[in-house]
Amino acid sequence: MQFLGTAALLLIASPALRAQSADALPEAPTPQVQAVDLAQNNGGPQQPPGTKQAGQPPSTSTEPSLSDLGLTTAQTQGSARAQALLDKRTHMLKVHQRLGLLTMIPLAATVISSASATGGHHRNGTTLVPSSTGNTAGRDLHAALGSVTVGMYAATAWYAIRAPKVPGTESRGAIRIHKALVWIHAPGMVLTPVLGAMAFKQLNSGEKVHGIASAHAAVAWVTVAAYGASIVSISWPIHLKF
């Protein structure tokens, strides 16, 4: 009887025990709660790289921009017209340099041929007088080479004069020397053939070179020296590129 009474009490108390045990055990965590706990354990919410959190202020850079330096958008983007102007100037000045170097060939030949361009002389008793039968072939060659030199010099100068100017540029260093020497060899290239033509006429007439025509050789040498120095000032060492 005592056993039966104990069993009956256990049957009556079992529902209450089951309810109490159910209240004592923690519930299984949901997936959402697991995600929150995992984020907290890792030090904060994990987001893909490059994403911004809500309410986060935009990042600011401390590096100066071109606008901070006072440059406008038009200045930084450049101009197609200005680039075309610069390309044309570069091309024409390269042609100017090449023609200038090539002009040295007939110029040197003209100087060499001047030795055979002097007039002939013969003696009339004890007096030495000029003769129209001098070396006329040498004079003709010298005059022809001089004409070629002047023509090529003119073409060389044309490319330098007609090259478009870039506003705001300033000549410096060797370029200034190159331009300064123009004031010597340019007038010389005009005076030398004029004086040469006068001397040529006097010699062919059987006369001795006289008057202003006698300065032909001196002017020619000054012109050659100035022209050579002008080339060396910007082209040394000289490299021919065609």
Outline the structure in words.
By secondary structure, this protein is mainly α. The protein has a domain at 81-235. 62% of the residues lie in helices and 4% in strands. It contains seven helices and two strands. The protein has helices at 2-24, 31-41, 73-77, 80-113, 136-162, 174-204, 216-235, and strands at 120-124, 127-131. The chain has a two-stranded antiparallel sheet with strand order 1-2. Helix 5 (136-162) packs antiparallel against helix 6 and helix 6 packs antiparallel against helix 7 (216-235). The longest helix has 34 residues, at 80-113. It is elongated, with a radius of gyration of 50 Å. The termini are far apart. 14% of the residues are buried. The model has no long low-confidence stretch (mean pLDDT 75).
What's a quick, concise take on this entry?
The chain contains seven helices and two strands; from the N terminus they run ααααββααα. The chain is mostly helical and 242 residues long.
Task: Please state how the strands of the largest beta sheet are arranged side by side.
Answer: 1-2
The count of strands amounts to: 2
Tell me the major beta sheet. Answer: 2 strands, antiparallel
- Whole-number average pLDDT? 75
Structural class: mainly alpha
Give the overall form.
elongated
Task: Return Rg in Å.
Answer: 50 Å
Helicity level: 55-70%
Order of helices and strands: HHHHEEHHH
% residues in beta strands = under 5%
Number of helical runs? 7
Unreliable stretches (pLDDT < 50, length at least 5) are none
The CA-CA distance between the termini, in Å, is: 130 Å
